[in-house]
Amino acid sequence: MAKLMISLIVFTLVFSSFLIIGTNASSTVVEGPSESEQVVTVGSGDTLWSIASSFKNGSDIGYLVFSIKNRNNLDNVTIHPGQKLIIPDI
């Protein structure tokens, strides 16, 4: 009986952990672009640096990469073909 109770408690804890982790995964929703922002579709071979250099307009490219990363809630600089990125107006 004690083993069954311990197994039930462990199962409940593991199941609850998955629920909590799953709900946190959906909290990275990106707001749509404003009128002054542009949306680009990542092409094959594109990097955040190459995309940022296209929109540089005299800005520091490192700051623009940082801004694009933050605006799109990216954890790192990895992007994939077909992905849509919002380019912030800076």
Automatic annotation (TrEMBL):
Q: What is this protein called?
A: LysM domain-containing protein
The top of its lineage is: Bacteria, Bacillati, Bacillota, Bacilli, Bacillales
In the record, which residues are listed under signal peptide?
Answer: none
InterPro entries referenced in this protein's UniProt entry, alphabetically:
LysM (IPR018392), LysM_dom_sf (IPR036779)
Q: Which stretches are annotated as coiled coil?
A: none
Domain named LysM: which ranges? 38-87
